[in-house]
Design a protein that fits this description.
Number of helices: 10
Structural class: alpha+beta
Bound molecules: glutathione
Mean pLDDT: 94
Helix content: 40-55%
Largest sheet: 4 strands, mixed
CATH architecture of one domain: Up-down Bundle
CATH class of one domain: Mainly Alpha
Number of strands: 4
Oligomer: single chain
Radius of gyration: 20 Å
Length: 297
Amino acid sequence: MTEKNPADNFPAGYEVPKVWVWEKGNGGQFANINRPIAGPTHDKELPVGKHPLQLYSLATPNGVKVTIMLEELLALGHKGAEYDAWLIKIGDGNQFGSGFVEVNPNSKIPALLDRSTAEPTRVFESGSILLYLAKKFGNAFLPEDHKAQTETMNWLFWQMASAPYLGGGFGHFYAYAPIHIQYAIDRFSMEVKRQLDVLDRHLADNQFMAGDSYSIADIAIWPWYGNLAQGKAYGEAGKFLDVESYKNLQRWTAEIAERPAVQRGRMVNRMHGEPSEQLHERHDASDFDTRTQDKIG
Ligand SMILES: N[C@@H](CCC(=O)N[C@@H](CS)C(=O)NCC(=O)O)C(=O)O
């Protein structure tokens, strides 16, 4: 580590202690749920519905990946992809209930329980869930061709590794931190702009992330980078990062936004935005009907 003058630190005079100590409520939007300890905080069974797949989630970008995938599978005619989507309110700490922790020991949404297997199978981490569902339904949205399948995996893993810079880095320090720290905002804006450029250059020569066909790589990337490209993430972040200038990313974002399964998927477990776009829980395909009528009417 380079030598640092405590007077230059923020707050001025702060010296890094030898051992970090948890001080509850260190500020910021998620101070009430952040904790340095894993495991459940309370006993709470998870509800179980009638379908083979039980999803415990919220319509954050990571959650929306899975509901889009399930709606896409149903649109392809895979009846086994019928699902119950239960709401996990992470702001209220539902992810620390004992039942949820049994499905995801990492206490993060989304978490899936597949009850169609001999023993129920738990699946956590959104990338793992997308791959699990693709394989379960005959490599749906996973190209057979060796090169395209490898590209799909490249971009799926790229998304899993890159989005924490966007959300946990840029989004946190731009929108959620209790103070604006120029060093942090500059560092993560630089990285997110670089990521947007990576996508934009790739999409100049490719219709979708893995080439000609829409895949789980698109389903993973769109809820994060498509949302940002549409100016829907972190308040004024779209303008701040000049997302309009990434023309190929804009083309890809708009094309995917047109898909009916994407429009349905982004409504499920949604607690924010227009009430007509929120479907807090989904237990049947008909649950969308009233929302759609509201939108048209
Ligand atoms: N790498 C995980 C990240 C999941 C994640 O960060 N989920 C957030 C919401 S987007 C969450 O549950 N946060 C609650 C918490 O941190 O306590 C995935 O892709 O599934």
